[in-house]
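Worked Example 4.2. Read the sequence first, then its structure tokens.
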Amino acid sequence: MEKHTTSAKVLLNHATILYLHTGNLVNRSRLKKKCPSSPSEEIQDCVRATLNEWCATIPPTTSPMDLPDTIDCSIPQATEAITPEEREELKVSVKLFICEADLSSIKDAVDKSCQVLAVSQLDSVIIAPPVLPEGESQTLENLQPAWTELEGLVQSHKIAAIGTSDLDKELLEQLYNWARVKPSSNQVNLASCCVMPPDLTAFAKEFDIQLLTHNDPKELITAASFQEAVQESTQDLKVADWRLEWVLRYSIIVKSRGIIKAKGYLVHSKRNNL
């Protein structure tokens, strides 16, 4: 195992981009043994477990000629693509957490998830508002660039419906009035709001916006937590060089039965220029 880990470290130390896919967590027994107490703990556990399994697949000897700039860290047997025959029976929903200001991340994340799941279109994408500096409030101006990117992906038929997260009635109304493609849903964090605000409920009902609940923190996984998971899995001495670009969580639901067929995470990380 140590030789495999050394080879994985060589790959990581050379690469500049890392895509990590946890595969279908519904069928991954080594994660069922531990019930995560939060979404943050779940994804950190998933990153660590996926890297451990991936490291074990790397041949002990890796030629310098075989060192790619982009690493796809995934476990093939844990990944379940959707077949064309079953696509109509399934709903593919995604929540996207953008960690960097680069808005090209949105298209990159959508394209990557479509590729991994073998679909041409996502049924629903909810975007988490970018984390703001302490003391700043969310504004329509902050939301507009990301929403414009999502609208373009709806128009190109990569996404069927787009939604928001943690917007109060005032901000949701501003976004609704400004947007060309209207939000189809808005997630509400019940940790900060035990009961749906009446004004938000009334507005959502009037304009046919679905209100959903969630328990995600504002930052699903911090850069430090991600680096810690990489460090534990690979003993990579240069983990501080890696920064998160985006994190995407997907779920695939059987429409007729309402059960989750698959769920998982995609993570995109980039190495700082040295």
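Now turn to a second chain, presented in exactly the same format:
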Amino acid sequence: MAGLEVLFSCVSSAIARPQDVVVCFVHWEAVKNGYKCLGTGDEPRDDDKKSELLPAGWNTSGELYTLRYRSNDDKSTLLFKAITVDSTLIFNVMDSATEQISDLTVNVSDYIDAQHLHDFERVFKNTEDLANKVKSKLLPQVKGESSKKAKKSERDPLVDTQRDDPLRIPTRTPSSSRQPNWSDPLAPFAAGGAGLDPFGGRAGGMIVDPLRAGFPRPGFDPSHGVLPPGAVPPGARFDPFGPVGRRRPGPDPDHMPPPGYDDMFM
């Protein structure tokens, strides 16, 4: 409640009824939320000057309070009215920039001790509840403040929870639903990937033989007993299943019988 005691001391001598104290409190909340008071009355005046204090004659009527406010960035002007109805105060605020109207009804006895109108330490009750009502239901947010709150609300609460939870086990699911784009079509475990996703940008698969797709890979020749790196664990015994060589796979002329030879058992 920093600043409220100073404001209350400045207007204490003019306070004549509990409604005056409520208006003083609401004025303090308006100042805290980025507004300054211009003066009394419905119409602007030539001598209007922004101030954190209440203007002279702010509570002359006792039944109707009319004040004007302007935001610190000069982009919004508020017309503030409060009407006394029995033991309640009905507040009405109109924002001239947006023409939006907000209202709030306050039961004065819930927040003001009428027996101690000039004692700051004892006159207020339930100030936190009253402050929340004024900010949420009556005062429009200054654009700078509202944008900060909007950015904060845009944060994903699930992401924040996962980031702040030290006991969370990281998920095994990739952050993107799209499969990684393997640059090497002959990489281990890539077999069949291009066939399952023919539009994923990977060559090979069922459309083109990866060994003849224009990606030469010296040393990788399955028909000559050479496997891709990583296929054989370190230290494991491996017997080549064909003659070791570095020729590209394909038909071997020695596999064909001599011309005119027709013996199937030779």
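Notes for the reader: The chain has seven helices and five strands. Residues 144-150, 208-214 have pLDDT under 50 and may be disordered.
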